[in-house]
Each structure stands twice: as C-alpha cells, then as structure tokens.
Amino acid sequence: MRMTVGVLIVLAVMPIAAYAQLSSAEYTINTGEMVLDFDVRYDLGTVMYDRIQITDGTDTIILGISDVISERGDSIRLNMDSLKAALVNNMSSPILKMDEGAVRFGGAHSAVQSVPIIGKVQVGVVIPDTYQASRHMVELSTEHFNHILERSDASWRLEVVFNDNERQTVSLLELEQSDIDVVIGNESLLAKSRIAQPGMIVMACCDASTDYDIVRGDPLFFSLVPSNNDALDATLAMMNDMGINRILPVYPANDRAILDRINYQAQVAVADGIQYGFSDSSEQIVSSVADAIASDLVMLPGVRLGVLLTSAHDTPRILEAAYQDRSLTTVRWFGLETHDGILDSSKAKFFAQEVGYMVPYIGVLENPLTVSLDSYMYGELGYAPNKTAFGAYDAVQILGLSILGDADIYNSDIDKFADLNVEANDVAGVISGISSEFGGYTTYVGLAEDGGLEAPVYQIQSVRGDAWVRTAMYNNPVDTKVGTISFGDAILPYIQYVAGEPLIDDVVQVGLLVHEYDAYEAGLAARMGLALLDGEYSLVVEDVTNNDIQDGMRLFSDVGIPIVVVHAPESSTLEASVHAQNHNTLIIGTASTGVQSAIQNDNTFRMLPSDMWQARALAGMMAHDNIRGVVAIYPDQTQAQSLLEGVADVFAGEIDMTHSYTDISNVMRNVTLSAIEMTERYGHEGTAILALGDGDDVGYLMDNALGTAGRINWYGSLRVAGSPSISDMTTGSINLAALSPTISGGGHAQLILDSLYLMQPPAYTNSLFEAARVAGMAMTQSDSNADIARALLPSIADDSNLMYDDISFDENGDLASYTYDIWRIDDAWIRDSIYDVMTGYASHIPIGVMVPLTGHDAQRGIQQMWGAHLALSAQNEILEQEGAPWRLSQRVVDTASSPIVSLGAARDLYNMNIQAALGPPDTVSVNEIGRFGSYSDFMLISCCSDAPDVYNSYVVYLGSTDVHKSQTILRMLGDDGISNLLVIHDGSSTILNSLASDFSGHLNVQEYDAIDAHSRVVADADDTLSGMLNLYDRSSVGVLLLADHTDTASILGEALYQNNLQYANWYGVSTDGVLPDILYNPDAVATATNTNFAVAVPAIPKDVDELKAILRMVIGFTPSSDAYLMHDAATLLSTTIIQLNGDSTAPAVAEIMPLLAADLAGITGPLALENNQRLTLSHDIWRIVDGKWQLQKTIP
Fold it and tell me: Is 777 helix (H, G, I), strand (E, B) or coil?
C-alpha cells in the first residue's frame, strides 16, 4: 500500500489594524521639519522607516532612521536634509505614504495608507506681553487666514511663532536660528533689528508712530505705523481746512526739532512759538500763550490763529491751566496725538470741548470687520482694545499674501511648495505691490517702495463728553463694496480700500445715550449698523448709568447732535423724551416699549412696537400652546406691571399676578408654591410661568427653578429672547419660549445676526442696529437739522430696513410691526415660528440658499442671495394676506466658491431637515450636489450654472444650455465675419464641444492649466495667431477666451505686450456679469479696447428698473443677470411649495415643479423647462467703450 504524506506548514500571519492610524503629515517649509500625527498610539520601536515614503507619483523619497528627530507614540518628528527638502518643495501635491506594516499598533501591522502633506510657513512674532490686544490680533488673523486656505483646499498654512524673550534682540536671533525669515513686531523692533542685522523682514505694527529713517534704511524693513511727520501733516491739514492762517507752536525745550519740522511742513505763517522747560509751571506756560495770542490778534488784523501743542504728555496740565483764562477760548487749539489724561481732568476736558481741541489718531476705519474685531477682543480681554492693535490683523494678512505671492488669497491652489515666497528677499520684493492691491481690512495699508505707508490714514478726534470721538478723516481712503469676506465662521460685507487724497473729510456724528445697559455692547450693535452705511459716521456714546440723564442729553445738544439713540429702560427713556421735546432734539428709543410712551406728534420714535402688541402676542403664544393657568414673575416696575396687565386683559385663562420682586433671590419659593396649585387645576401641560424680567433675571430664576416650577413651560418677553445669560445649561429640561419683533427671513439678516452674535446680544438689540442706521441717514439727509430730520425720518425708515422686514412707524412713532418671532432654547436660541397679532401663529419653512459669499464668486453670491430674498419677501406678503399658517425664510450657507464646501453645505442643510435649496452658480458644485441629492432626497434649483453632467429629477437648472451659448458665440462671430478662430480655454468650459461641431471655419484650440503663468499663455497664443494672420485675411481672424473673470482680466492684461494679439477681434462668454475685474486692470482695458473685446452675458430683463434700483442700493453695485435668475429660481421654488401647501420635501417638489414651470413666467421670461430641465435665455453683447462697459445689442 502506498501512502502519500503531506506536510502542512502554518505561517504566522501578523494581523493588520483595520482602522486608519495616520491622521496628518505637516511639513514646515522653512525648516524642513515634518510631523506625522497618529490618532492612536503606536508601538514604540516598531517603526520601519524604509516603508514610509514621500511621493508625488513621479519622484519618491524613502525615509530613513537618519531623518528621525523623535518618536512620541502619538507622533513622529522628522527633519529633511537640504537635498530631500528641496525635492519635497518641488513635488507637485506631495503625499506621505505608509506601506503595510510600517508601524505596529497593539501588535497589529498598520494598513497601507496615505495623507496629503500640508506645508507650513512660519512667521515670527516679537510683541511684548504688555501688547495683549496686538498678540490676540495676530493669533486671530492667522486663524482667519488659515480658515480661508482650508476652505479653499490649499496645501499650505501660515504658522506664527511667538518669541517672548525680554530682550528683543535675542528674540530676533533665536528666530533667525530657527530659519524664520519674516517677523512681526512693535515699532521698537525695527531699531533692535538694525543693531542685530539678522537679515530678516521686520514688519512693524501696533504703535502710534515710528521713525521712517530707520525703515528707509533697510530694504527688509516695513512699517504699518505712520511717522511723526505724518501726524504733523494731518494736523496742519485740519488747521488749513479750518482756515487757520497763523500757527502758534507750544513746545518743550528738549524738542526744538519740532519747530523746524512745523516751519518746513506748514504752508502758512508760523510764529516763533512758546518754548517751555521742565521747571516751568502750567500757569507760566499758559500765561505766555495768552500774551502771544493777545499780541497777534492786535498786531495782525484778519489773523486766524491756531495754538498747536506738540507734547501729548504735557497737554492735560496745559489745558487744565487754560481753563481759568477765558481769553484763551477766542482761538482754536490743536495737538499731535490723544492723551487720556485730558479725560481724567474735568477742567481740561471742558476746555478741550469749548475750544474744539483736535488731534490726529492712527486711522482705524469703522467697517463691519473692525467692529467685529472690537467685539471679539472685548470678549477675549474684557476691555476695548487700543486702536493701534488693529494693524497686527492686517500685518498677518499682508505677509501671508506676500508669501503666497498674490493679493487674492483664493488663488492659493499652488502646485509646489517651492512656488511660495519663503526667503526674506523674495517676500520683500512683493510686499509693496501686494499691500497696495490688498488695500487692507482695518484701514488702507498700501506700502510705498521705501517700506512706509503710502497714504497713512488718520482719524481727526475731538473730546465729546467723556471720550475721544472721531470728527473727521485725513487721507480717507476710497472704498468700494465688493461683496463679502470670511471672518472665521461669520460672513461680513467686504469693503475694498484704495489710497485717498490728503484732504480732511467730515464725519457725521450719531449720539447714543445708554442707561443701565452695557454701553460698550450697545455701542457695538449701533456701530455695526452705521458701518453698513455709505459715508463716514462716528458714534458718540454717553453712558449715564451713574449720572443724570438730563446732563447726558444736554451734552448732545451742546455738540450739535440733534438725533440721539436712547438705549434705556422705560422711565429713563421717558425722562430723555421730556428733554428732547423741550430742546428740539429727536430720540429713537431701542429698549422702551411701555404704552405710556406711545404719544402722537412728539419728538420720540421707538424702534420697537408698543407693549399693547407685545401683550397680545404673549397671550396668543400661550393660548396656541393650550396654556390655561399662568404664574407671572415680574420686576416691581411700572412697565412690567403695565405689560402684565395688558396680557391679563386678552388672555382667556387664569393669571396669578402676585409675584413681583425687588429682590430676585427670594421670589422662586413662592412661585413654586403657586405653580403647584395651578397644576392641580390645569395639569402640567396647561400651566406655565411667564417671566417679564430681562435675560439676566430670567436666567437666574430658571437656574433656581425647583420641582414643579422646573417641569412646566416658561415664557418670556422681548427682553429675554436671544439673551446670552440663558442657555440649555441654564434651562435644563425646561421648555422656554420668548418673543421679539420679527426680523427679516432673508439671508442678509442672518449674516448680520451672525456678525452681531460675535458679541452675543439679546435679540431686542437688533433695534439698536436699525435705529443707528436710521439716525445716521437722517443726520446726513437733514444736514443735522432737527426740524428737517423730524419730517424726513419716517420716510427714511420706510426705505432702509435691513434687520427687520419693515421699520415704518405708526402714528405714535413706534415700530409699526404686529408680528413677533418666537425663539426657543435648544442647544442655542432658535427662531422657529412667528406670531402675528392680527392673523395668529405661523411656522417657518426654511429654504436653503447655497451661494458663494467668499472666494472668486462672492459678488455673484451676494446678489443671488438678495435676488432670492426679494422673491421670497413678495411671496410672504401674499401668504400673510391670505392668512396662511406659515412663512418662507432663507437659510444661507456659504459655498466659498468651492465644490467641496458646496457639498458639505448641502449635507448641512439636509441635516437641518431642509430638502430644497437654491444655488450654487458653478457647474462642478451643482454636479456634486446633484449626485448627493439623487440618493438623499435633496432638491436643488441652480439659477446660473453652466452645462452640468448630472441630470435627474432632483436638479433644475435655470440657465442657458451650452448649445444656446454656442449659437450665441457663432452669431457674434458671423456678424463680424470671423471664420478663423483661436480658442484659449482653461479646460473647465463645456461650451467648446458644441462650438467645435457647429463652427464651419478653421479652429485652433489652446488649453492652459491653472498653474500656467498667463504671460506664457499669451506668448504661446501670440505665436499661434502669428501663423493664422499670415495664412488668412486679418479681418477673418478672431480669438475666443473661455475663462473665469479673474483669468480673463489677467490674460487680457498680459496680451497688451504681444503684438499679434492686438490685431484680432476678441470674444468671451460670461455667466457672472460683464467681468468686473477687467476694469480694475488698465492693461486689460487697453487690450479690450484695441481688440473690440465682445462678451456675451445672459440678458438682463427689461422693465425691471425698480427691482434693479433696490438691488443696486442693497448690494452696493449694479447687479448682473444672476440676481434676476435667482429671483426667478426662488419664485419657482416658493410657488411650488405654496402649491403643495407648505410641503418642502424633495420628492413632492420634484414631482410638480416641472408642471408648474410650464405655465409660469418670471422676470427673465417663460420658465418652461426643456427635457434636461434647463431654460433658454437671450444674451446681451457688451464691449468696453471709453473705459466702461456698454451694451451693444441683444441676441435672442
């Protein structure tokens, strides 16, 4: 018998970890260090470096043990030698790849995995601890800069490295040893760097002045701080503006040079001046000034004398001494900088106001971003930051953009780390150009070639009450509203600055009287309202919490401010109202709602409805929830008692009104007993507590609610809704609902709220925002005349709402709104429904609006958001008239001009239970969302994208087809006799396929990549066109450019320097208006003019003048077809939801929308959809004539 014997060999197979262990690979470009982070700890001593590699698919680096600095279990630190670092820097989008078994985790081999390498460029920071606000500004600016890079899917980040050595010279040398070539510091760092000579860029910020001789002495030195000479220029300019024709300098003996500078820079006569020594008393100085004034006024007929105090340190004592001599008030007084010592002396302060003492101050501008920065810093530090700190925010932005090499951070998709400017000389070579093109967020920050500010901006400040107040501007920059920007997660209006003329511009002053509220927080809300107006406004805040209200009102009268916003409780507002009536002043109350203040034909307006309406809304809200028994808690104040009586008059159930309080700590025990008795009659579901205190009070009461009081519903007045004192932690299991006047359902109000919530105000402070705006406009339009303002104010309010849907006033001067938002606490305050006093309860049906509010397409996004809002507002008016139990509102999400962010935005909306959305305008994003919607029941209506490649019932495109765009281009070419065409395109346009099949002439196609230099693109095109011009008749040759507006402007600009390209007609097609970037590029304008550049744009509808005017007013620039197409898209979606009686689920909307569209006409024309759910649109043809776009014709 034969047996076959087999041998079974069992190999031990190491298990493989099934989860991803490597989380990130960060590479410091300037040092060559790399850190690998793991999400769980690996087994020390098990790393096999020959299984870890860096690659871009072409080049590969295998790591070795010599590259290792340290292993920590959760990370590995590596250091590339110079050769490896150079190779990494020149890789295209490198990744770090770990082969199987490169690391062990709990004995298990790691699986194959890879992560993209994120590069970091380090910037040093040498700012002393005493400059806390500046240090915070640096950190915040870096965070915001990196937030944009991350959302743009960029491969690099900025990292700031603080060095806090007490000796700044040592800090510089330590940073130099760390291979850091760029440093931010305060002004003194320049002198220290001049001594140490580390060969680093030093950018100075965060001080009032600097020595430009030091800056000009080194090509690596830059300063965002103006010089002392700049401050003197500003002072002399304001003296000249006021007609001063002779200057009397008053200066210390140890600063004789200041007299020389005044003589050199002044354009009027300068007296010998008053020189004083350390031993001279204030009275001696003032006596000498008085003698000089008397002499000049007698000896020089017609002289207009101005006293110039050159030492800020000595100014408070000189002004205090001058208070005693009335003869000194006959001339104007000026200085070179502010000093808070003046505010600390009642005599100095009074004299400064009497003589109009004016000084220049480093020019932080009032705009939404600076107000938000103030808010953020106030929350972080607990005090208002010094304005000199704001330069740190812009310093980070300028250096980050200079490292990128582009003033547009959204052009951050670099291919190689080597494309970044890291070394000092490379950064220095672009800073001036980048800074001027960037313009600045907090002021104009353009740097001249010598490293100093090109046009330093100054506020001209005077003493008003207890504060320095901006009264004028010097070098006020020219500003243009150009869309929105990202402030972290908030979206703010973006104002682009360019250098202004060195003239004095007036600032309109608006008064704010605050009593028993936080004056700074109130001021922030009011300042945000003013910051959104055109022109320059300054808020004069008078906090009279511990002072007399009449004195506060008198201050505003004395300084010529006839309109005052009053943020104060009822009794205080009444007192201010009496003063206003007696002194021809107007007030706009923002916290008063009592019925006793609802008086006809007085000088008091209120940006809140009267309590007669709030009482009905509270009663109606509780009745809607089937509440039959109420225990009221309220402060022992007239307004609260009156409001409660109003509720009792209309509430059908029982109200226990016995629990008023002066001491809040003792009230809850008796309230709980009353609540127990009430629940015995009406049950827990039918019983509630009505709390009429403010947010702080109600937060305290809820925190101390025990037993039954903690298990029944609570309701609050408009002083409660949105209060930061109340959160889900405070309320616990209590259901709290509170109301406030209805804010707009539009996306703009949401964005304003997001920016205001940086300071966490309660909802009723929305009234401050609107009141300040109305006051500012009334001051401007009435030329600060109270009688004219009284007549104009109601009509101004009618046309100026932003936060509220309607801010018209009733016959008593109160906000004529009978509609309240109902806010409830969940994880945060949520505005979930509406109560209309006339028609009852209505729910919100949110519609998603996904638009690019940041990035390349921000201008498109902001006008699309407004187009949607105006359409939905019109539909809501119809719903209100018909008494429908619901209203439409927008939930805006920023797509950041990025398909990745767009897809995330769609998922966010879906998770909010929003299944129908408008936007975005770019095709790639629409395709991504279309795929998501097909399996997630998510409906998308895109108004303005190009031809998509995803077609399903959950995607509707209100935009022209590629075929129709191609036909439009062919019509343009045919009209001009073009039969030989060079097409330059960026690879993203889908029009080319249709064009190629229909164009009967000769076609040359040149494609370029995003990384290609545009100078190279046009050089190649010039070579191609040269051959075509030799072969064909010149009049038959044309160039078609298919690119976005940024590339189009750049390519046209570069083409100016290529001879052949100037001899052919150029053409383009745009979905986003008439390519605004071209007008900002003089070379592009020249090429467009030379080549008759014609652009086909979706046609703007006719007969929309009123809508166009509204859009122009709210967005700040002329809208393109995007706004009108989005208006139609919103109309189509909202009409569908209305037809479905409020059903906004994707399947329901998708089913009937095409049927409705077939019979619906929008402002752009019929909305009937073709088979692939798209429209066919006419196109306008535009050309640049005399530097401006002009409409030539329309092609149907």
Answer: helix
Q: Using CA atoms, how far apart are residues 580 and 601, in angstroms rounded to an integer?
A: 13
Residues paired with 829 in a beta bridge = 825
Burial class (CB in 10 A: 0-12, 13-18, 19+), 291: exposed
pLDDT value of residue 560: 87
Beta bridge partners of 587: 564, 604
Nearest alpha-carbon partner for 675 in 666, 662, 688? 688
Q: Is there a contact between 246 and 308 (Cβ–Cβ < 8 Å)?
A: no
Over residues 970-1018, the pLDDT tens digits come to 999 999 999 999 999 887 777 888 888 889 999 999 998 877 778 889 9
Query: What is the Cα 159 distance to its own chain's centre?
Result: 22
CA–CA gap between residue 720 and residue 739 (Å, rounded): 8
pLDDT exceeds cutoff 90 at 79? yes
Sheet of strand 586-589, all strands in order from the earlier edge strand to the far edge: 537-543, 508-514, 563-567, 586-589, 604-606
Strand partners, 275: 251
Q: Is residue 852 a contact partner of residue 895, using CB atoms and an 8 Å limit?
A: yes
Neighbours of 711 (CB within 10 A): 16
Domains of the chain: 1-111 (2.60.40), 598-838 (3.40.50.2300), 847-960+1103-1177 (3.40.50.2300), 977-1091 (3.40.50.2300)
Question: Which residues neighbour 542 within 8 Å (Cβ) at sequence distance 6 or greater?
Answer: 465, 466, 511, 512, 513, 514, 552, 555, 556
The CA-to-CA distance between both ends of the chain, in Å, stands at 96
Hey, what's the torsion of the CAs at 818, 824, 827, 828, to 10 degrees?
A: 30
1163, containing H or E segment? none
Distance of CA 886 to the CA centre of its chain: 31
Sequence-distant contacts of 832-839: CB under 8 A, at least 24 apart: 834/742, 834/887, 835/617, 835/620, 835/621, 835/624, 835/739, 836/880, 837/613, 837/616, 837/617, 837/620, 839/880, 839/883
DSSP β-ladder status, 274-276 and 1065-1069: unpaired
| Contact (CB, 8 A) for 709 and 689 | yes
Q: Are 462 and 469 in contact (CB under 8 A)?
A: yes
207-232: string of b/e by CB count within 10 Å (b at 16+)? bbbbbbebbeebebbbbbbbbbbbbb
Peptide bond into 456 cis (omega under 30): no
- Within 8 A by CB and 6+ apart from 1171, the residues are none
Q: What residue ranges in 692-735 does DSSP mark as E strands?
A: 713-716
Tally the residues of the chain. Answer: 1196
Residue with tokens 């109202």: 577
The encoded tokens of residue 434 equal 């980048």
CA dihedral over 267, 272, 278, 283, signed as positive or negative:
negative
Token digits for 474?
A: 């010097």
Using a 10 angstrom Cβ sphere, with 0-12 exposed, 13-18 middle and 19 or more buried, the burial of residue 455 is: buried
Single pTM value for the model? 0.88
pLDDT digits (tens, 9 = 90+) for 1023-1071: 999 999 999 999 999 999 988 777 888 899 999 999 899 999 999 988 6
- What digits encode the pLDDT tens for the residues 128-177? 999 999 999 999 999 999 999 998 889 999 999 999 888 999 999 999 99
Q: Can you tell me which residue has the tokens 């060559």? A: 32
Give the per-residue pLDDT at 8: 41
The tokens for 842 are 């209505």
Q: What pLDDT does residue 302 have?
A: 87
Three-state secondary structure readout of 899-932: HHHHHHHHHHHHHCCCCEEECCCCHHHHHHHHHH
pLDDT (0 to 100) of residue 13: 45
Helix axes 766-782, 747-756, angle to 10 degrees: 100
Beta sheet of 1188-1195, edge-to-edge order: 1002-1007, 980-985, 1037-1042, 1065-1069, 1094-1098, 1179-1185, 1188-1195
